[in-house]
Every structure is written in C-alpha cells, then in structure tokens.
Description:
alpha/beta
Amino acid sequence: MIESSLKQLAAALAAKQVSAVELATEFLRRAEQYNGTLNAYITLDQQKTLAEALAVDQARANGPVGPLAGIPVAHKDIFCQEGWRTTCGSKMLGNFVSPYSAHVVEQCQAAGLVTLGRTNMDEFAMGSSNENSYFGAVQNPWDGAAVPGGSSGGSAAAVAARLAPIATGTDTGGSIRQPASFCGITGIKPTYGVVSRFGMIAYASSLDQGGPMAKSAEDCALLLNVMAGFDERDATSLEREREDYARDLDRPLAGLRIGLPKEYFAEGLAQDVAGVIDAAIAEYKKLGAEVVEISLPNTKLAIPSYYVIAPAEASSNLSRFDGVRYGHRAAAFDGLNGMYEQSRAEGFGWEVKRRILTGAYVLSHGYYDAYYLQAQKIRRLIANDFQAAFTHCDVIAGPVAPTTAWNLGEKSNDPVAMYLADIYTLGVNLAGLPAMSVPAGFGSNGRPVGLQLIGNYFSEARLLNTAHQFQLATDWHTKAPAL
Length: 483
C-alpha cells in the first residue's frame, strides 16, 4: 500500500478494498514508528486525522466523491490550517493554532484529501538544509548523517520514507526542488501565481510559491490539479481557466528540444552529479528528444540578486511578529520597545535574524538604490535570459544542486557556502518560471541526485509530461530508502 501510486490508492478506495480510515491508520503507524528518528513531522494528531478520514468514508457511503477522496496528504507547516498548530518551524509561532485555513488546504479538503500532519521545515522557510527549524533538524531517510534539503525537507523526507504518499511544499529559491533532489522524490514549483499564497505564511512574497511533492510526476500532476486555482484573497493569484496538468502525460517526446545551459555544467558541479545528469540526458535522446546548447549568461548573478531581494521582503513580512497580538511574547521586558526587542530576540533563530538584518540594511536610506534597486534590475536580466533561451528550446535541463546532500552540521557555520548551493535554482524563482526535480540516480556516496527541468510560463503540463516519460523509461523514482 505504501508503494502504491495515487491512481492505485484511489482505485482501491473506490472499490472499497481499503477505507480512508485504514489508509490513514497505516501511514500514521509508519509516522509514529519512524518520526522519532527522521523528525519529518512537527505535529501529528491521530484524532483529527482519523476524524477527517471517517468523514470521507461516510461521504463515500452516501454518494459519489472526488477521485482523490480519502488519500492522505502531509502539509508543510507553513500553510495555515484551522484547528491545527501552525508553527512555520519557529519558536515565534510555537503555540499558534490557526483560526483559518490556507487556500491550498481548503482545496485539499474540498477534494477529500485527509491531513496526516504538519511537516518540519527551516524556520520561516529560510534555509537549504532543514537545520534551521526550532523543532530540530530533519534527517535524510537515505542517510541519517545527511541533510534532507530545505526548506521543505520535512515534506521531502516524509514522502521518501513513505510516511505520506504526497505532501505540499513551498519554493522561494528552490525549496521544493532541492529537498526533492536530496531525498530522491519528485517535486514541482509551478509558475508564480498558479497556486494561491493566501494562508501561506510569507517569507518573500514576490518569490514564494506552493507546489506538490510526491514519488512520481503523475502523482504531482494529480495533486497540482487540486492545489492550483484562482483565489481572490491573494492579489498575486492568476485568474486563469482551470487545466488538467495530467492531460499530456502520455505524449511522446519525439521532437522535444531540451536546452542545456553551459553555465550549469561549468566549474563547481561535482563529477558524480554531472555523470547522473549526463546519463539522464542520454536517456532523453533515446526517447526522441533533441539536445541543444544554450546560455543563461546572468546565472552567476542570481545568488547576489536573490539574497538582496528575499531578505528585503522578509524584513518587511516578519515585522508583524512583535509579541502583541499573537506569537511569542517575552516573559520579562522593560517598556513597549523592550517587549518588541526581547520577544523577537527570543522568538527568531539566527538565520532568520541574519536575513531580517540584511533586508533592513538594503532597504535603508542611502542603500536602497545601491542594492535593492540594482537587484531588481538584475532580476529582469535573468528573466530575459530565460526568454531568449526558450526561443531555442522547449525545456531546460540541468542539475538541481552542485552536489548531493551534505552532512548535517557541515555548512551550519558557513551560511555563504549554503547560499552558493542554490546557484541552479534561484534564477527560476526570480523569473517566476515553473520547474521541477526528477529522481535521476545516485551520487558516489549513495545519496540521490535530481534532474532539474525548467519550462516557460504555464508549461507545467509539458514539464510533467517530460518527467513522466523519463519515469516510464527508468525506475529511479521507485527506489525507496531502507529504514
């Protein structure tokens, strides 16, 4: 059951070979068994989960239900969910029980998906290793000494370890794709605005985007069908006709033009990762795809641009956490300003403080033009690079990260080294493009490697088709860690 695809699980539920309660119970059992080691979940609530599952079973007994009704899903703890503790991986929100649900959660509940729990994450989605969580680091299920990637590391670890069949994640600079790569699962970041940000606790509003994480591209397509949709409560939500992201999965790849950016295969890419990517490209050639070399000349500027824009937006978004209405309030302080200072000092971790300070600095008088405005100009250049590239290709392929997952603690004292690991993912967010990670093999240390596929705006169905056809020809996405 734990290895079944969403279609297989849905068929078993429809045929009443298994009930939603039985299915949820099985995944809860695994979560209880392995979460003590992996730390993939921050919150599990068996009573709430089984109540949701029972409601689905009762609805099915009374008439037709949605195709995914009864499927369990794990939610990244950045999506507010009514009645559930929603922490964002931070002490600041350690006891916050949300009075409302995010649009993504509402969509999942409307489809009959059953909430398994709330997955661990880097605090306020700031990090690439899931070591910045107030609730402790997540372990990579493939190797307990390795990081799972971040910030959606809890979701990635839960799916990889079969503690959940599917999970939600968010991607601000690679936070779906990089943990998907490190944990050997599939994950897609849609075009900016396709998935509503309402109820998704903000880090960097012009970059954040929710998306699905699952074992396969087909499962991601089915979950994206649920997650996507216009929401008038989010000013950046795109009002578009609903589409079926699974519609092109079986389309042959003959004639597909895959662009390989020369900047993604230059110095800094580990040899074992490069070998896996080369093998994946060779497989695509067998499937009838054509490979062309392209250039994204401003790739090297993505890191400095991102780490000006994202902290600037974070410093603004996180100013609401002041100990007044909700969130952590210091027990002892002197005066109103003292309450602000002490509450924020105690409530935020070091990485969050670092980015707030950086953001406040680049937005300050005398530095706004020199840093923030220049970063926005570079952002436009990066977006233009992608548009120029797409005149020569349909899909861009390359590595997700320069290396496989590093060891826990290896980069904790060197934040710049961790920032540099995002070199291949940041440009996508700055441009607002869709992109995904597809399991493609293993590095020399036995840790997973993901292939990154990048598409033009609103080409999610094409990306999922490109990934699905690769997964029909290979079995990397079926590999599971031995727990």
